[in-house]
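Request: Show me your protein:
***
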Amino acid sequence: MQTKKSGFTLLEILLVIGIIAVLAGIVIIAVNPSKQLAQVRNTQRKSDIKQIYNAITQYYIDNSAYPATLSTTALTEICNTGSVASTSTSTSGVNCATAGLTNLSTLVPTYLVSIPTDPTGSSSLLSFIPTAYAATNATGTGYKIAKNASNQIVVQAPLAEIGTQVVVGDIMSTIISGITASWHFNEASGSTFTDSSGHGYTCNATNPSQSSAVAAMFSNGRVTSNESGGCLATGINLSNSSFTLSAWGKRSYAQQGSNVSGSNIFMAGKGTTAPTSENISMGNPVLGGGNFRFESWSGDFATVGPAINGTTDTSWHYYVGTFDTSTKVANLYIDGVLVSSVVGTVNFVTTGSNLWIAQLDGWGQGWNGTYDEAAVWGRALTASEVAYLYNGGTGRVLVP
C-alpha cells in the first residue's frame, strides 16, 4: 500500500518566504552595510593622511626644510599629481598653482610612490574645489594640509564620513594661526575681559551694569540686558585685510522683523560714535527683516542668512563671518554650515579700530541674551576649520 506524501501548501511557502524576508531585513539593519562601507573608507583615509604626514616629516629630517610648495598656513587641498615626480601639473592636466592647490609631487618617488587620493573618487564630489575645475576633472586629492608659524604640520581628510574627524597633527594650533584676539569671558566679576591670544586686546564693558557673568557654552560667559551689555576692544584694524569674526550666542528671546530691536553679536567700526561706527555687523539688525546677516554697512558686501524663528529660537548657535581680500568673498556660517556667500566689490576700508562684541555702539540694538567665546582672525577661516570649531554642536575652546 502506497503512502500519500504531503508537500508544502502555498500558504506555508509564503509564510516561510515572509519570515526569511523579515530576518534578512533585521540582519541588514543590524549590519548597516552603508555604515560599514563608510568605516572602511575612513580607515583608508586615516592610512592615507598618515602616509602623507610621515612622508613630509621624513622629507624635513632629510632636508632640514619642508617642500618649498608647502607655504600655506590655512588648510589647503593637496593637488592630485599621482605618481609623477616634481611636476606642476595634476593628473588631469591642470596647473596645481592655478587651481589653488598644494603641490607635493616633490615627495614622489622617494617618500611616496604616489600621492594618495580620497576613496570617494573625483573632485567633482568635493565642494571645496573651485567650481571651474570641480565640474570637469579630478584636480584635487580630497586631502588638505597646512603648516603653521611654528612649523607644525596638519593633514586632514575633510570628506570623512559618519561624523568622524580624520586628522593627523595638531589642527588647533593651525586654526589659531593668524588669530588676532580671543575672549573666553571666564571672568567671574569685573568689567574687563582678557584677550587670551596674548596680543593685549582687552575688551572693556561698555555698560557694566547691563551685563553679568553666567554659566555659558564654555565655563562662564556674559548675559546682557537692555541690549547694551556688550564690550569694546580698541586697536583692532580690519582695513584692507582678510578677517574672521566668530562667537557663540544664545538669545534670551528670539527676535524677528523690522519693528523690533536688533540683536547684533559683532560690530567692527571705523569711528567712535554712531553712525560712523556702523561699518561691519554680524547679527539680526533692526532693518534686517528678521534675517541673520553678516554685512558691510557701506555696501561692500551683505550676506543674508536664515530668518530668525519667531520667539522659539533660544538655543546656542555658533556664528562665523569671513572675508577674503584675494577673492572678495564674504561667507556667513551658522552652526558650522555655510548659509550665505557673496562676492563683494572692494576691501573693507576703515579709518578707526573699534570692535564691539554684543553691542551696536551706543545705540543699543545689541545682543539680548548670553554670549561666549568670541574671536577675531587676520585671515578667512576655511569651511573645514569652521566645522571643526563647531564640533557637531559641542564646540571647541580656542587655545590659547
Notes: The CA atoms of residues 192 and 252 lie 23 Å apart.
